[in-house]
Structure formats: structure tokens, C-alpha cells
């Protein structure tokens, strides 16, 4: 019986952005710019009596909180492991992503309540103010989204920030159009109607993020990894006749772990086999933390919680 564990951090640059890296400045810039914009947009929404502006300001405020949580979790994930936290604090990124998704939908609920009230009691809207502030939002949100564009494919936290900012930019475009329509037509119902559209767009665009963060929180295999494909790949390794207790789960929004028992009845040179296996798992599936145990034969049936797999 042979056992090996890999927790390597080398060659991380081959798969996605660094966990902290260049995004600390992006988070800082995004938070500062959006805080200023939220203050201006909320004041303008109250002055112009625009529910669309107020709903956009409320959503931008939730984005500020989301950016702060994601940034804090990213910094926390850099802390070294300890005796009690043997994997370190990487799991904070998953918890932050899940909390951010929940806060987003909570904010949408409050905004919906306010929008319904404005629809029941329409009031005059200052079109030029609405268009001016929303136009500024296009620039700020577009710039913030650009800051996160390079890392949005490798980390659900960064992708969440990117999608929030990109969505906000598109929403601001809608607010500009709505402000112009209200200004030129005088149809006051258009402002809350556009707010409903904003809510629908944000809710729909964020659903995938919410679903993925729930999956990560439940320690499901990351969406980009097909467990069946990993199982087939492992069974195809030289000398492997079966496997059992294959588990794949996220350590953070970036790091994936794997444990498995491989059966190699006639296995020789096990150390070299394990080194090659760990290298290939990282290259093929971006699994950088793996624990592999080699066995000469299967243990007694029922000794493990998963069904055994054998090469036919």
C-alpha cells in the first residue's frame, strides 16, 4: 500500500489568475469609485424623484458591499494554515461568494418594494438629472468591470465582481434611455417600469452566480470538472485496475482537492507513478491538491462509503 499527497503551489500561473495578485488595486478602485457614485446617485434620485435612479443606487451599494466582502475573503485566503485550520482560510472565498449572492437578492427585494410604491404613486421625474447621473454610471461601472476582466474566468469571486459591474453598466444605459423617454413623453409610469426591467435583468444575470456559489458551499465538484471524466481518466492510468472513494471538492473559489484510492495489484515504481499522476491531474483538470492511496487489492466490501469502480 502506497500513499502520497500533493499540495503544490508551483505552476499556478498556468491556470487562472493569482488569488490576490493584481486584483487588490482593482477591488480598492472599484469600492472607492462606486461609493462616490452611490452617494451622488442616491442624492440625485431623491432630488429628481426617480425610482430608477434609486433602484440603481441601491444595487450599486450592494455591489460595494460585495466588492468589500470578496476583497476581504481574498486577503484572508492568503493567510498561512495553522494547526486548527489545516487548509488555511481559503474557504472564506466560498462563504463570501455565497453571502454576496444572498445579499444581492435581498437588495433586489427592497428595491422591488420601493418600485411598486412608485408605480402606485407616480411623481414627476427630472429627466436631465437622471440621464446625467446614469451616464456617469456607464463610465464608472464600465471602468470597474474592465479592471476585473482578466480574472473573471478563473475565480468566482472575481467573476462575480466583473458580472456585477458589467450588468450595472448595461443597467445605466437603460436608465439613460428611460430618462430620455420620460423627459420627452411625460409618461411618468416609464420610470418605475424601467426599474422593473432593471430588477429582472440583475436577477436573471445573477442566477447563475447564485447557483454556482451554492454548489461550492455544498462542496460539490466545481462546475468545470466532470467527475465521470476524471474517473475514466484515472482508470486509464497504466497498471490501474480499479478505484474507490473518489472525492472532488473545492477548497476555495480557485483551488480544487481530490482524494482517491487506486488499485494496482502489480504496481511497481509507485513513487514515479504518483508524481506523474499528480502532475497530470493539475495539467488536465486543474486539480492541484490531491491525496492518492495505492492498494494491492480492494478492501472488504462495505468498508467504504462509495461504490468501487473496476476496469472491465
Itemize the secondary structure elements and their pairings.
Blueprint: E1 2-7, H1 23-48, H2 51-76, H3 92-120, H4 127-148, H5 156-185, H6 190-217, H7 227-235, E2 242-250, E3 256-263, H8 270-285, E4 289-295, E5 309-310
Parallel strand pairs: 3-4
Antiparallel strand pairs: 1-4, 2-3, 2-5
Helix pairs in contact: 1-2, 1-4, 2-3, 2-5, 2-6, 3-6, 4-5, 5-6
Query: What's the tally of helices?
Result: 8
What structural class do you assign from the helix and strand content?
alpha+beta
| Residue-averaged pLDDT | 77
**Overall geometry:** elongated
Key features of this structure:
312 residues, alpha+beta, Alpha-lytic protease prodomain-like, 2 domains, single chain, Cation_efflux_CTD, 5 strands, 5-stranded mixed β-sheet, 8 helices, Alpha-Beta Plaits
Account of the 3D structure:
The chain is an alpha+beta fold. It has 2 domains: 25-218, Alpha-lytic protease prodomain-like (Up-down Bundle); 227-295, Cation efflux protein, cytoplasmic domain (Alpha-Beta Plaits, 2-Layer Sandwich), CATH 3.30.70. The chain has helices at 23-48, 51-76, 92-120, 127-148, 156-185, 190-217, 227-235, 270-285, and strands spanning 2-7, 242-250, 256-263, 289-295, 309-310. A 5-stranded mixed beta sheet has the order 1-4-3-2-5, with helices on one face. Mean pLDDT is 77; it is low at 7-21 and 300-307.
Amino acid at each position: 500500500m502506497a500513499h502520497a499527497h500533493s499540495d503544490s503551489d508551483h505552476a499556478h500561473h498556468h491556470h487562472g489568475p493569482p488569488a490576490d495578485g493584481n486584483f487588490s488595486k482593482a477591488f480598492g478602485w472599484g469600492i472607492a469609485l462606486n461609493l462616490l457614485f452611490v452617494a451622488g446617485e442616491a442624492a440625485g434620485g431623491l432630488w429628481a424623484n426617480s425610482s430608477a435612479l434609486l433602484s440603481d443606487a441601491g444595487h450599486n451599494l450592494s455591489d460595494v458591499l460585495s466588492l468589500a466582502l470578496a476583497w476581504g475573503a481574498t486577503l484572508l485566503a492568503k493567510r498561512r494554515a495553522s494547526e486548527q485550520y489545516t487548509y488555511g482560510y481559503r474557504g472564506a472565498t466560498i462563504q463570501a461568494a455565497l453571502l454576496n449572492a444572498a445579499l444581492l437578492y435581498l437588495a433586489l427585494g427592497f428595491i422591488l418594494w420601493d418600485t411598486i410604491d412608485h408605480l402606485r404613486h407616480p411623481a414627476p421625474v427630472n429627466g436631465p438629472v437622471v440621464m446625467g447621473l446614469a451616464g456617469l454610471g456607464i463610465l464608472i461601472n464600465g471602468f470597474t468591470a474592465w479592471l476585473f476582466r482578466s480574472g473573471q474566468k478563473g475565480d468566482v469571486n472575481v467573476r462575480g465582481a466583473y458580472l456585477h459591474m458589467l450588468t450595472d453598466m448595461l443597467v445605466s444605459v437603460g436608465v439613460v434611455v428611460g430618462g430620455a423617454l420620460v423627459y420627452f413623453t411625460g409618461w411618468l409610469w416609464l420610470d418605475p417600469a424601467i426599474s422593473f426591467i432593471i430588477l429582472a435583468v440583475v436577477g436573471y444575470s445573477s442566477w447563475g452566480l447564485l447557483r454556482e456559489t451554492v454548489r461550492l458551499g455544498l462542496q460539490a465538484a466545481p462546475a468545470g470538472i466532470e467527475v465521470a471524466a476524471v474517473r475514466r481518466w484515472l482508470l486509464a492510468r497504466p497498471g490501474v485496475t480499479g478505484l474507490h472513494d473518489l472525492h472532488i471538492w473545492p477548497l476555495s473559489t480557485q483551488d480544487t482537492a481530490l482524494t482517491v484510492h487506486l488499485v494496482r495489484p502489480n504496481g511497481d515504481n509507485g513513487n514515479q507513478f504518483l508524481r506523474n499522476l499528480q502532475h497530470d491531474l493539475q495539467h488536465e483538470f486543474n486539480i492541484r491538491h490531491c491525496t492518492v492511496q495505492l492498494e494491492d487489492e480492494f478492501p472488504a466490501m462495505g468498508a467504504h462509503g462509495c461504490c468501487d469502480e473496476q476496469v472491465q
